[in-house]
């Protein structure tokens, strides 16, 4: 029997690039237009069909995250809360989440990364179907020195990932979305700290490169990817979300809508969410989405979603 892929949102760290804003508040709780930043990475996992999600936070921020997101049942998902005692690199997440994963493959997304695109669910679904090895997503950027960057061999095939190189070998940055198989925690235990004292995700990914099991999926110009970890990029991300909603009339990173489209909550649940947010444009959007759904799907009594683990027709 195939093991279900689980999700990880890494929402720890100290947020020093956003000081003084984040001295008293986790950056992943900051607003990106009309939603907390953490909604966006959660939405990526939900679009990939992942319902069991571990959110890794710092000890001091854990209570605020729990108050905002609860156990995830309102979206038909199951949230497990894990704490990162200190930020020792992205690969550390697989050590913290090892018991949660329990041998399952995973999809990890960084808590300050925002992804959006017309067929993003298809791309992430493709990565999720890969039983062994790893898949990462790359995007061409103008400032590759800020990221992990792909290098290529003589035949133009991805050969390695260099972490924040002063002279980047290409403009293809590896985004903060990683689909890894069940061996990730074991591989992470073998990673040694880098000169800056961190367990680098690039070192973990290089172990997949070494055995020929890492796939690189390229995001094109139709896909937006933003790292909202600086003041300028946080503002840019908020403006992007606002402009895209105004242009298309559709929400970005709307957990209630995704849960409904996945069949994890029903029409009555969607109505409850719309009522809860009724004083906001976000709530009015959910109400419009409910009206659309009622036009296509006649509302019958007791239309509630099944519990996590139940089959959805």
UniProtKB/TrEMBL annotation:
NCBIfam families: rmlA (TIGR01207). Transmembrane segments: none annotated. InterPro entries: G1P_thy_trans_s, NTP_transferase_dom, Nucleotide-diphossugar_trans. Residues 6-242 form the Nucleotidyl transferase domain. GO terms for molecular function: glucose-1-phosphate thymidylyltransferase activity. Belongs to the glucose-1-phosphate thymidylyltransferase family. The keyword Magnesium applies. It comes from the Bacteria. Its EC number is 2.7.7.24. This is Glucose-1-phosphate thymidylyltransferase. Keywords: Magnesium, Metal-binding, Nucleotidyltransferase, Transferase. Its cofactor is Mg(2+). It holds the Pfam family NTP_transferase. It catalyses: dTTP + alpha-D-glucose 1-phosphate + H(+) = dTDP-alpha-D-glucose + diphosphate. Catalyzes the formation of dTDP-glucose, from dTTP and glucose 1-phosphate, as well as its pyrophosphorolysis.
């Amino acid at each position: 029997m195939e093991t279900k892929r689980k999700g990880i949102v890494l929402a720890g760290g100290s947020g020093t690039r956003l000081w003084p804003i984040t001295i008293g508040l986790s950056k992943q709780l900051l607003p990106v237009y009309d939603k907390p930043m953490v909604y966006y990475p959660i939405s990526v996992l939900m679009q990939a069909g992942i319902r069991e999600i571990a959110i890794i936070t710092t000890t001091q921020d854990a209570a605020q995250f729990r108050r905002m997101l609860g156990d995830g049942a309102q979206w038909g998902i199951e949230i497990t809360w894990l704490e990162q005692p200190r930020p020792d690199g992205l690969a550390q997440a697989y050590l913290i989440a090892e018991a949660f994963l329990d041998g399952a493959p995973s999809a990890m997304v960084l808590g300050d990364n925002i992804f959006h695109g017309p067929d993003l669910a298809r791309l992430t679904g493709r990565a999720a179907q890969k039983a062994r090895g790893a898949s990462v997503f790359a995007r061409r950027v103008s400032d590759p020195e800020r990221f992990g960057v792909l290098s290529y061999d003589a035949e133009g095939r991805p050969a390695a990932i260099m972490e924040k190189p002063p002279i980047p070998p290409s403009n293809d940055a590896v985004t903060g979305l990683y689909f890894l198989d069940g061996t990730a925690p074991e591989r992470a235990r073998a990673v040694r700290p880098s000169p800056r004292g961190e367990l680098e995700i690039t070192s973990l990914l290089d172990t997949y490169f070494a055995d020929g099991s890492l796939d690189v999926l390229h995001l094109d110009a139709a896909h937006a990817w933003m790292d909202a970890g600086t003041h300028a990029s946080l503002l840019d991300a908020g403006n992007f979300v606002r402009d895209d909603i105004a242009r298309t009339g559709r929400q970005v990173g709307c957990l209630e809508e995704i849960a409904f489209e996945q069949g994890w909550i029903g029409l009555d649940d969607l109505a409850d969410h719309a009522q809860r947010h009724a004083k906001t444009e976000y709530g009015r959007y959910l109400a419009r989405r409910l009206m659309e759904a009622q036009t296509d799907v006649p509302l019958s009594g007791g239309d509630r979603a099944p519990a996590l683990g139940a089959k959805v027709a």
